[in-house]
Amino acid sequence: MKNFIGTYECKIDDKGRLKVPASLIKQMENFDDKAFVVKRSVFQPCLEVYPMKAWDKLMDKINKLNRFIKKNADFIRMFTAGVKTVELDNAGRLQISKDLTLFASLQKDIVITSAGELFEIWDKEAYEKVISTNEADFASLAEDVMGSFDEE
């Protein structure tokens, strides 16, 4: 499994074009996908960008849900709301649609940060707020999430 690495500060213009840093473009080339999927995050006011293969793997799980159960149908609708496919243009930019730009409150200064097999796009101020937890809070979170994790 391939993973993205790094956090980058960038700019987005008034037309929603995001200049992707060269080192991230190089990482994107390591995924055999030209197209990527951009969607709203479930838990945070940011965007998630998936390589197509990772997106297809996720959708394989979602497509197994029984759509005749209302909460499943509601979840699928909400999860896929606003989903767009994007490709880098010749200038190394991603075009972020207006609805997704508004969802994530993207202003001029943004942060792109790795999140395993996907990366996230944040408004810089919102990102700084989210990661400004104190060490004790993060240590407690790390223990809760990873403390009982056993590799098979």
TrEMBL record:
Pfam families hit by this protein: MraZ
A GO CC annotation given for this chain: cytoplasm
Primary location recorded for the protein, binned into one broad class: cytoplasm
GO terms (BP aspect): negative regulation of DNA-templated transcription initiation
Family matches, as InterPro entries: MraZ (IPR003444), MraZ_C (IPR035644), MraZ_dom (IPR020603), MraZ_N (IPR035642), MraZ_sf (IPR038619), SpoVT-AbrB_dom (IPR007159), SpoVT-AbrB_sf (IPR037914)
Keyword Transport recorded: no
Localization, UniProt: Cytoplasm, Nucleoid
Coiled-coil spans in chain: none
Keywords: Cytoplasm, DNA-binding, Repeat, Transcription, Transcription regulation
Any one Gene Ontology molecular-function term assigned to this protein's record: DNA-binding transcription factor activity
The SpoVT-AbrB domain, residue ranges: 7-54, 83-126
Record-stated family: Belongs to the MraZ family.
Record note on quaternary structure: Forms oligomers.
Protein name, UniProt field: Transcriptional regulator MraZ
Organism for this UniProt entry: Chryseobacterium piperi
